[in-house]
Amino acid sequence: MGDKVAETDAVGGSDIESELDRDIGIVGAVALGVGTMIAAGIFVLSGLAVSNVGAMAIGSFLIAAIVASFTAFAYAEFAAIYPESGGGYMYVANTFDSDLTYIVGWSMILGYPASAAFYLASFSDWFYRFLYPALSIPKAIPFWVAGLLVLGLLLAVNLKGTEETGLFQIIVTALKVGLIILFLYGGFQAFDASVAATSFAENATNFDSLFLTSALVFITFFGFEAIATNAEEIKEPGRTIPRAIFFSMGFVTVVYALVVLVIVFAINNNGFIESLIEMGRIGAPAGVEGYIEANAEVAMALAAQYYLGGFGFYVIIVGALFSMLSAANATILAGSRVKLAMSRRNHLLNSSKTFTRH
């Protein structure tokens, strides 16, 4: 708190005084990683992955995690060597010439707002589709209002300070993980090892779909960049960042694997299939996999509704909204750190007079 960066002209001979406090501990760093990795992907891609390769989707997530870990290892090493704000931009800046650094920096400074916009647009869409009817909100209110209000909330939290932003991230991440754990608890009440074994066996030689699905879910593991980008405000970065990166990736991999199993149990459960028929979502049991593939974004919610009762559907919807919220928050925070790093190296077109409280 009370940390401040004062900047003079960022075009010619800038003089930047940095007084960033290290307010983020291991829990906050993990929350940044998990909060970004468990975003909309777990709610959309899990159902799609299961429809492609059944329980072998666990293998797809594992392959994606292993491949992503090579990049994560590089980030962990660089973060320990250069514990400064900026993440990948700073690593390139300390390794290559300034022209390449400039290109990478601007790619990141444009990419982070685009990612945040995607998360907020997804938040608005899900809120409009699922909570407007549940809360009897008039459809006359534009769908983008929810996203705009959330953006205002996130900007206010981020302007307040790094410690407050980190606490907000921890709370939101804990809430969504708690809701996912509730979903897993309900799903594993129907645990059947033979169902999982059969699904594995049926898809064991489907290598094309296995690797294509792995490529599809690969992007879900890149939340570790948000940890490295905030290295300057993480306590004991040489120890904390590598631990936070690999704990986040390991935790998220386990969560994805368990979610895959629960969805596999659902689509092979006669009671679940009958519930879809009763709701008019499918006409016959044979249509369940096709329905899940076409409506992957609600696969978890429908499974939760069957396992937990009527409120289960909204457990997942609210969990998805929390996921988008935490991912947007981490992205906004990381994007501001890239801006700070670029200012220090005169790579911003205009001056930024003050960069307050982070």
What does this structure look like?
The chain crosses the membrane at residues 24-49, 55-79, 100-121, 141-159, 166-191, 211-232, 244-267, 311-335. It comes from Halocatena marina. Keywords: Cell membrane, Membrane, Transmembrane, Transmembrane helix. It is found in: Cell membrane. The protein has 358 residues and is mostly helical. The chain has a single domain (4-356), classed as Amino acid/polyamine transporter I (Up-down Bundle), CATH 1.20.1740. The protein contains 15 helices and three strands. The protein has helices at residues 26-37, 40-53, 57-81, 88-93, 98-134, 144-160, 162-187, 193-203, 207-217, 224-229, 237-267, 270-278, 288-294, 299-308, 310-344; strands spanning 4-7, 16-19, 354-356. Helix 6 packs across helix 7 (162-187). The longest helix is centred in the first third of the chain and has 37 residues, at 98-134.
